[in-house]
Specification:
By secondary structure, the chain is α/β, with parallel strands linked by helices. The chain has helices spanning about 30-45, 60-75, 85-95, and strands at about 5-10, 15-25, 45-60, 80-85, 115. It has a single domain (about 5-115), classed as Transcription Regulator spoIIAA (2-Layer Sandwich). The protein has three helices and five strands. Helix 1 packs parallel to helix 2. GO terms for molecular function: anti-sigma factor antagonist activity. It comes from Paractinoplanes toevensis. Pfam families: STAS (PF01740).
Length: about 120
């Protein structure tokens, strides 16, 4: 199982960014879920950005956690954004049929942000 580090920061425009580094799998998804749901509950941001630039691996549990965050954000009226998914992450979301839900284009582009 991998390791992941999550940090949270607020942008100048008030959006909250959760930066994720490492692997999203059974060993790490609880921390991400807690970070996403806790931030939504405590802060109720207008926009929650999950930056996936440095995610090197993601399995079905990681995908499920992103879906949980997406659904929780919708319930609180928060815009949920996936920023810079790595090629691997983008491919996983396409294969599972979830890329469209997250607003991802047909092919990855690390220079863009994607909203859902």
């Amino acid at each position: 199982m991998g390791e992941a580090v999550m940090t949270t920061r607020t942008q100048a425009d008030g959006a909250i960014v959760v930066d994720v580094r490492g692997s999203l799998d059974a060993a790490t998804v609880d921390a991400l879920r807690e970070s996403l749901l806790g931030t939504l509950t405590r802060e109720r941001p207008r926009t929650l950005i999950v930056d996936l630039t440095f995610v090197v691996f993601m399995d079905s549990m990681g995908i499920g956690t992103l879906v949980t965050g997406y659904n929780a954000a919708r319930e609180t009226g928060t815009r949920f954004v996936l920023r810079n998914p790595s090629d691997f992450v983008h491919r996983q979301l396409r294969v599972t049929g979830l890329a469209e839900m997250f607003g991802l284009p047909p092919a990855s582009s690390s220079a863009q942000s994607f909203t859902g």
